[in-house]
Specification:
- This protein is of the alpha+beta class.
- About 15% of the residues lie in helices and about 35% in strands.
- A 9-stranded mixed β-sheet has the order 17-16-15-14-8-13-12-11-18, sandwiched between helices.
- Helix 3 (about 75-85) packs parallel to helix 4.
Length: about 625
């Protein structure tokens, strides 16, 4: 009998584990390794096996019956569909996909081709699962609580271009603690309460946090209520002081138990016993040869994908000072969240979210939409009140997302590198000693230090007037210190309309002193940091490529940064689409603050070297006009 031929797609990273397993099965006479597919290898062979360009080309080297895919998350769907359409069955690394739509596409490919996909949740091959299901361990299972306290350094997040990212190249990857490193914990808890298919899910609640400078989450809580009323929870972190083997705490009608799913052990009444595990590739091969039931068929991951949909709809919240300390340097640098082990333990015991067990950094407030700006029926910007911003990032109203008429998003908010960067808005690092910018405060002679000096800004009154081609809003805002005392008044005008090249936003802020005294508006520049006079009107761009930043007389970050010019223009490719934004200074001559290499942003520096003064009898006014266009703007 001809042995089934296996092709491994993705030979490095976790693919090395699959390679070792395949080599074991080859040595046992269960299968053959036909070829390896990995564009990073750059060689004709890998460990003695042929390297092919794709699954179809692998047939030149032998049979292709099973394809094992250990590729980046964003490549799972196209690679799996291609393998199915080539006539092969698939062992697909977890997570299989990240959206309901992608799962439906892959299930459809299964049906069309008559082939199958097994998903690589290895823990679901444990013999403990049927023992829990038949009631022999704790009676009927009522709940399952996953606990994971791991630690990961900077090197972990730097290992690939998709690590810690939520979206890459227009594809949702959602890489984070729930989706990837501790995904087995979530999937195992779901399986233990019989919640595996999408239809088994009644409700999903998630709280996502991050201490690392990543887009994704590294400290998160999940609670899934099944259609049968059972609960599966997970309290997870990658910011613990040490690596602790993850477990699932199972409660039943007659007792409780702990499943150590990575070591295949079950503890009941203080007694720990080892259990067996069926290898998922062996199970897939046995399904082909003998009709054995798949342990993790694709359809059984529907409940897990429902969790990922909740992750996709929820933006991670920063865990910041004073709840995070840092250890190590360079690639070994890692954050430690204060008391995280106790918080995770409490959340698991109570089957609760972090906010429900009093985690001091838990922030569950979300932004309220103040208004949506529309031009010719198209939504071009959303104004948020900033309630979703944590205190150390100085909550304030801002515009995000801002879009071109063609739909390209050209702003970012709460990016991984600077959580306090919020779309388009006005922020000042030093308002008479109050930090209304966010993050650390610059102190001359000390550098950037954490202080409990963060303020906030809120809209107290607004009048809106809209029409088909645009609209206007007048707002009264108050700027407050950490003690809620008013430190500044602002009258803001926003106006937007259609123009030939796209659409135009006019922003005017008029600042008033709250009393008979001068208010100093400053920042690092006025406090002694040369070339860092940020503070004022600020536009944080979405991630982009092919950046050109210019004025009428200068081009490039170094040339434009610190220059005084009537306008500055930013052109770039945003998520595959070119767009341009031109900012004009209407009533002042402040220098432009520009960043392109470190992060994408342009601002107007009202305190480049000296503080701006708001006198009791004379308002300080700063006005701007922004033109937002698809493609390139006409030359000026």
């Amino acid at each position: 009998m001809t042995l089934p031929g296996v092709v491994l797609v993705g030979a490095r990273g976790y693919g090395l584990h699959h390679r070792a397993n395949i080599d074991r099965l080859v040595a046992s006479g269960v299968c053959t390794l036909t070829a390896v597919v990995d564009p990073t290898l750059g060689a004709a062979t890998d460990g003695g096996s042929p390297v092919a360009t794709d699954v179809v080309a692998a047939r030149e080297h032998g049979p292709v019956d099973v394809v094992v895919i250990a590729a980046p998350i964003g490549a799972h769907l196209p690679l799996a569909v291609a393998a199915l359409e080539s006539g092969a069955d698939v062992l697909l690394e977890k997570p299989p996909v990240t959206t309901r739509e992608a799962l439906a596409s892959l299930l459809d490919a299964e049906r069309r081709t008559g082939r199958v996909v097994q998903v690589g949740f290895q823990s679901l091959g444990s013999d403990a699962l049927p023992a829990f299901r038949d009631g022999s361990l704790v009676g009927t299972v009522r709940s399952a609580a996953a606990v994971g306290t791991w630690t990961r350094s900077r090197a972990y997040w730097d290992r690939s271009g998709w690590a810690g990212r939520r979206r890459v190249g227009g594809v949702d990857v959602l890489d984070g603690v729930v989706t990837n490193p501790l995904a087995h914990a979530v999937a195992t808890a779901l399986a233990l309460v019989g919640c595996r298919r999408a239809a088994d899910v009644a409700r999903v609640e998630v709280e996502l946090y991050r201490a690392n400078a990543i887009d994704g989450d590294d400290t998160s809580a999940v609670r899934v209520t099944s259609a049968a009323g059972l609960e599966a929870t997970a309290a997870l972190t990658l910011c613990g002081p040490s690596e602790v083997l993850p477990t699932v705490r199972v409660r039943g009608t007659t007792g409780s138990a702990v499943l150590h799913y990575t070591s295949d052990e079950v503890t009941v009444d203080g007694v720990t016993e080892a259990v067996g595990r069926t290898d998922l590739l062996e199970n897939l091969l046995a399904h082909r040869s003998s009709g054995d039931e798949l342990l993790v068929p694709l359809v059984s991951t529907g409940a897990f994908v429902e969790v990922l949909e909740a992750v996709r709809a929820t933006e991670p919240v920063q865990i910041d000072h004073p709840w995070v300390t840092w250890e190590g340097e360079g690639p070994d640098r890692r954050p430690l969240v204060t008391d995280i082990e106790a918080i995770v333990d409490r959340a698991a015991d109570e089957r609760a979210l972090f906010s429900e067990v009093g985690a001091p950094w838990a922030h569950t407030a979300t932004d309220e939409v103040l208004q949506v700006l529309r031009v010719d029926g198209a939504e071009v910007a959303t104004e948020r009140d900033g309630a979703g911003t944590i205190a150390t990032s100085s909550p304030r109203p801002y515009l995000h997302p801002v879009r071109t008429l063609g739909g390209s998003v050209v702003t970012a908010h709460h990016p991984a590198d600077h959580d306090w960067h919020c779309g388009v808005g006005f922020a000042v690092p030093d308002v008479e000693g109050v930090n209304c910018w966010g993050g650390r405060t610059y102190v001359h002679g000390q550098g950037y230090v954490w202080r409990d000096d963060h303020g906030s800004v809120e809209v107290v009154h607004a009048e809106q007037h809209g029409g088909q081609h645009g609209g206007t809003t007048t707002q009264e805002l108050v700027w407050r210190g950490p003690d809620r005392a008013v430190v500044l008044h602002e009258d803001r005008l926003l106006a937007w309309r259609t123009v030939d090249s796209g659409w135009e936003l006019t922003w005017s802020s008029s600042f008033r002193s709250p009393g008979p005294h001068v208010v100093h508006l400053g920042g690092p520049g006025s406090n002694g940091r040369v070339g860092a006079g940020y503070g004022g009107f600020f536009w944080r761009f979405a991630a982009c490529d092919d950046i050109t930043v210019r004025t009428a007389n200068a081009e490039g970050e170094d040339a434009v940064h610190g220059s005084v010019a009537p306008w500055v223009e930013w052109s770039a490719v945003f998520d595959g689409s070119p767009a341009s934004i031109r900012l004009e200074a209407l009533d002042h001559h402040d220098p432009w603050f520009v960043r392109a290499a470190e992060y994408p942003a342009v601002g107007s520096a009202l305190a480049w070297q000296q503080p701006a003064l708001v006198r009791p009898d004379i308002p300080l006014v700063r006005s701007f006009r922004a033109t937002v266009a698809d493609g390139l703007l006409p030359q000026r």
